[in-house]
Design a protein that fits this description.
2 copies of one chain form a homodimer. Chain A has a single domain (3-71, 120-330), classed as Rossmann fold (3-Layer(aba) Sandwich). The first copy, chain A, has 14 helices and 14 strands. The first copy, chain A, has helices spanning 3-6, 22-33, 58-67, 85-92, 103-117, 122-132, 162-168, 190-196, 213-221, 226-233, 253-259, 266-276, 291-297, 314-330; strands at residues 13-18, 38-43, 49-51, 54-56, 139-143, 150-155, 158-161, 175-181, 204-208, 236-240, 243-244, 247-248, 283-287, 303-307. In chain A, helix 2 runs parallel beside helix 3, helix 2 (22-33) crosses helix 14 (314-330) and helix 5 (103-117) packs across helix 6 (122-132). The interface between A and B is medium-sized, with 32 and 32 residues.
């Protein structure tokens, strides 16, 4: 983190745990509406992989692009105004074509490689990329750990690396289990510890973004020491349901819940998180379309808040981001 | 080398030692006119370097592009019809801009990285790239060694890596010495040994291309075992002067000769090669414009042949390539 971030010591801080989809959209909203506080977006390391000799960090990059207002709004990943000269030539040469890489995206990967080869850590390189992309100074994009954590999927087609499952096979294999290779040796990045550390004024609120619990949040939260770090420093921990009206808005969260024998609902997602990380979450955010669930179950005694969580447009995302800041973080 | 090459056992073989300039042009000519024999172009490893996390092999790539008929004819390096999307974005992000990389070129570097990460050796990866680029089957592009050899320059501005000297500082520092880091531990690539090995029919002729003797030929010839390998297997070794009428057609060869206290002439270049590699060369090729030198010195008893060595156009290069095959290699 640079001095811009450190000098904002007096204000409130937010820590957002994020994958590459809904969490990245929320990060984009906070980069527009959260200027009066410092926001650290903690990104999922489990999607990172080596490809064509480069380290690629898809979730971190989606957050970077979203927070810099230059993510492609249609695809929801990669850069806006992208071109494909390298990828076209790579395929013309018979190279691997299963993972699409735009020219601007490749420039970022090459620059990350250059920074890492100069001796910067992954967190330092990410901070440098954020500033070069003109991510607003109140936003810090923080890989959850400096260690190597790689999500692996046990499926009916055998054990698969995450990108093999997610991109090459389009989440088609039925999932039996997920594990995070290397996570036992990982620890939260020091920059995250610094960000959460005691300061003269202000509180820290932690938000679990509306991201896939198995593929995005667990590879962050299962890092040894992560839950105690978050819980120990946070005034409040809020979790946003990625399940809306019995479906995932995007991505395989609903499919995976089914395959793991769970009911696909915000209520079931809530129980799953609460069982897996007991005592971590103080308040839950469900989409307005799940109001009926709340009336049926009364939320099993939990603090559940309901609003429209849709972030299909920047306007919707900004509205939700502003609501989140006011309703869940600012109020004491 | 692939089976196409190995099945051409009966014919004559040529081994061309090449840097990235004149040697690459000659390789391009041989890829058009030498179809009745097998040609191995042995490329200089000293220019290779790591940049943006990628291994870049400039001389090898110039030979690949030239032999595949897709080198940029104006620049003399890189791909024809090149675009610069990645490089533009890299500079927009404040990344290193001193080494120009086109999009098609980057695709090749990424594919090489991918092949190396799959476990291919540098020679195997280069062979794969040659076939993908549609280099003609009688042409093999062979890095001189699998080992890491890096040319370093001792100059009036201190010790510099080759690309720092050659590209970033445009050969401006005055050169005091050149050395080849790692060359003492290197050995000729096995693929080159195979190519030169005894076969049922045909002879091997070795050509030292019109390449910079200090920066292109010496990092090949100084590899321990290289001169005995070439001399031991060759019917004839021919060296082509890169000095024409007291100048280098391109590149810093003349400037370096001056800085090292040598007269800039084909005669002096001949003496330098003969002193440094005694007994290696059987025949010398000078440009027609140096006919007068021959009349003055009588070549000091050497077998010197004179023709137009200009390769400014493909037509000139093809004419010279055909002359070389007939006058220096085919005749016994």
């Amino acid at each position: 983190m640079n001095s811009d971030t450190h000098t904002r010591e007096a204000g409130n801080r937010m820590v957002l745990l994020s994958g590459g989809g809904g969490g990245a959209r929320l990060a984009g909203a906070l980069s527009r509406v959260a200027g009066d506080r410092s926001v650290a977006v903690v990104t999922n390391p489990g999607d990172d992989f080596e490809h064509l000799g480069l380290l690629i960090c898809p979730d971190t990059d989606s957050v970077l692009y979203s927070a810099a207002q230059n993510i492609d709004p249609e695809r929801g990943w990669g850069r806006a105004g992208e071109s494909w000269s390298v990828f076209d030539e790579l395929r013309a040469l018979g190279g691997p074509g299963w993972f699409q890489l735009g020219d601007k995206d490749i420039a970022l990967h090459l620059l990350r490689a250059s920074l890492l080869s100069e001796g910067l850590s992954l967190v330092e390189a990410t901070e440098s990329l954020a500033r070069r992309l003109a991510v607003p100074p109140w936003m810090t994009v923080l890989p959850a750990t400096e260690s190597t954590v790689r999500t692996k999927v046990v499926s009916d087609q055998g054990e698969l690396g995450f990108q093999e499952y997610f991109v090459a096979r389009r989440c088609e294999p039925a999932l039996k289990d997920v594990f995070y290779e290397g996570i036992g040796m990982a620890s939260p990045s020091n920059a995250l510890r610094d960000f959460m550390g005691p300061r003269d004024g202000g509180a820290v609120d932690v938000v679990l973004g509306p991201s896939n619990p198995f593929l995005s949040l667990a590879p962050i939260l299962d890092i040894p020491g992560m839950v105690p770090l978050l819980r120990g420093a946070a005034r409040r921990v809020v979790a946003i349901s990625p399940i809306v009206d019995g479906e995932a808005l995007k991505g395989p969260a609903a499919k995976i819940m089914s395959e793991l024998g769970l009911t696909v609902s915000a209520a079931e997602w809530t129980r799953w998180i609460d069982d897996r990380y007991p005592g971590l979450v103080d308040a839950w955010v469900w989409d307005a379309s799940d109001q009926n669930l709340l009336e049926t179950s009364s939320g099993e005694g939990r603090d559940i808040r309901v609003t429209s969580t849709l972030m299909s447009t920047p306007e919707q995302a900004d509205r939700f981001g502003a609501w989140l800041l006011e309703a869940c973080c600012d109020a004491d």
